[in-house]
Amino acid sequence: MKNLKKDLQAVIKELKALTRKTEAMAKKLAKLEKAQAAAKRKPKAKVKTKTAKKAPAKKKPVAKKKATKLTATDQVVNIIKRSKKGVDVPTLIKKTERAGRGVYVAA
Protein backbone atom coordinates (compact mmCIF):
# COMPACT_ATOMS: atom_id res chain seq x y z
CA MET A 1 0.00 0.00 0.00
CA LYS A 2 2.88 2.35 0.81
CA ASN A 3 4.53 1.62 -2.57
CA LEU A 4 1.32 2.41 -4.40
CA LYS A 5 0.99 5.72 -2.59
CA LYS A 6 4.62 6.64 -3.42
CA ASP A 7 4.09 5.70 -7.07
CA LEU A 8 0.96 7.84 -7.29
CA GLN A 9 2.73 10.81 -5.72
CA ALA A 10 5.59 10.44 -8.22
CA VAL A 11 3.12 10.38 -11.11
CA ILE A 12 1.36 13.48 -9.77
CA LYS A 13 4.69 15.30 -9.47
CA GLU A 14 5.63 14.42 -13.06
CA LEU A 15 2.21 15.49 -14.36
CA LYS A 16 2.56 18.87 -12.64
CA ALA A 17 5.99 19.36 -14.23
CA LEU A 18 4.61 18.46 -17.66
CA THR A 19 1.71 20.87 -17.14
CA ARG A 20 4.15 23.71 -16.37
CA LYS A 21 6.20 22.93 -19.49
CA THR A 22 3.08 22.77 -21.66
CA GLU A 23 1.83 26.10 -20.35
CA ALA A 24 5.22 27.72 -21.03
CA MET A 25 5.16 26.38 -24.60
CA ALA A 26 1.62 27.69 -25.08
CA LYS A 27 2.70 31.18 -23.96
CA LYS A 28 5.64 31.17 -26.40
CA LEU A 29 3.35 30.05 -29.20
CA ALA A 30 0.87 32.82 -28.44
CA LYS A 31 3.69 35.41 -28.58
CA LEU A 32 4.87 34.06 -31.94
CA GLU A 33 1.35 34.13 -33.36
CA LYS A 34 0.89 37.76 -32.23
CA ALA A 35 4.22 38.74 -33.79
CA GLN A 36 3.31 37.10 -37.10
CA ALA A 37 -0.13 38.72 -37.13
CA ALA A 38 1.43 42.13 -36.46
CA ALA A 39 3.97 41.60 -39.26
CA LYS A 40 1.18 40.79 -41.71
CA ARG A 41 -0.82 43.87 -40.75
CA LYS A 42 2.01 46.35 -41.29
CA PRO A 43 1.96 47.54 -44.91
CA LYS A 44 5.29 48.52 -46.37
CA ALA A 45 5.66 52.25 -46.75
CA LYS A 46 6.03 53.43 -50.34
CA VAL A 47 8.53 56.15 -51.02
CA LYS A 48 7.52 58.60 -53.72
CA THR A 49 10.13 60.80 -55.28
CA LYS A 50 10.02 62.85 -58.43
CA THR A 51 13.24 61.40 -59.82
CA ALA A 52 12.48 57.80 -59.01
CA LYS A 53 11.53 55.70 -62.01
CA LYS A 54 9.82 52.40 -61.88
CA ALA A 55 12.09 49.51 -62.65
CA PRO A 56 10.80 47.31 -65.45
CA ALA A 57 9.20 44.13 -64.24
CA LYS A 58 11.55 41.20 -64.45
CA LYS A 59 10.27 38.31 -66.44
CA LYS A 60 10.63 34.94 -64.85
CA PRO A 61 12.42 32.45 -67.04
CA VAL A 62 10.10 29.84 -68.42
CA ALA A 63 11.00 26.41 -67.15
CA LYS A 64 11.67 24.07 -70.02
CA LYS A 65 9.98 20.74 -69.87
CA LYS A 66 12.33 17.83 -69.88
CA ALA A 67 11.92 15.77 -73.00
CA THR A 68 10.83 12.29 -72.14
CA LYS A 69 12.74 9.72 -74.09
CA LEU A 70 10.39 7.75 -76.30
CA THR A 71 10.81 4.06 -76.77
CA ALA A 72 11.68 2.74 -80.19
CA THR A 73 8.12 1.47 -80.61
CA ASP A 74 6.70 4.91 -79.75
CA GLN A 75 8.99 6.54 -82.27
CA VAL A 76 7.97 4.16 -85.04
CA VAL A 77 4.29 4.65 -84.18
CA ASN A 78 4.80 8.44 -84.35
CA ILE A 79 6.37 8.08 -87.81
CA ILE A 80 3.35 6.09 -88.94
CA LYS A 81 0.87 8.57 -87.40
CA ARG A 82 2.53 11.55 -89.11
CA SER A 83 2.07 10.09 -92.56
CA LYS A 84 -1.36 10.48 -94.10
CA LYS A 85 -1.36 7.30 -96.17
CA GLY A 86 0.68 5.12 -93.82
CA VAL A 87 4.30 4.05 -94.14
CA ASP A 88 5.78 1.17 -96.03
CA VAL A 89 8.78 -0.84 -94.82
CA PRO A 90 11.37 0.90 -97.07
CA THR A 91 10.31 4.27 -95.62
CA LEU A 92 10.58 2.92 -92.09
CA ILE A 93 14.05 1.61 -92.92
CA LYS A 94 15.09 5.06 -94.16
CA LYS A 95 13.80 6.84 -91.05
CA THR A 96 14.95 4.24 -88.53
CA GLU A 97 17.69 1.70 -87.94
CA ARG A 98 16.92 -1.93 -88.36
CA ALA A 99 17.70 -3.81 -85.16
CA GLY A 100 16.57 -7.19 -86.41
CA ARG A 101 14.07 -8.83 -88.70
CA GLY A 102 10.87 -6.79 -88.45
CA VAL A 103 12.31 -4.67 -85.60
CA TYR A 104 13.09 -1.02 -86.31
CA VAL A 105 14.59 1.56 -83.96
CA ALA A 106 14.42 5.32 -84.51
CA ALA A 107 17.80 6.74 -85.45
Count of DSSP strands: 2
| Rg of Cα set | 37 Å
Global geometry: elongated
The succession of helices and strands, N to C, reads HHHEE
Number of helical segments?
Answer: 3
Portion in strands? 5-15%
> Structural class, please?
mainly alpha
Largest sheet: 2 strands, antiparallel
Summarize it:
It contains three helices and two strands; from the N terminus they run αααββ. It is mainly α.
Characterise this structure.
This protein has 107 residues and is mostly helical. It is built from three helices and two strands; from the N terminus they run αααββ. It has helices spanning 2-41, 72-82, 89-95, and strands spanning 96-100, 103-106. Strands 1-2 form a two-stranded antiparallel sheet. β1 and β2 form a beta hairpin. The chain is elongated and about 95 Å long. The mean pLDDT is 79.
Key descriptive features of the protein:
107 residues; two-stranded antiparallel ribbon; 3 helices; 2 strands; 8% strand; elongated
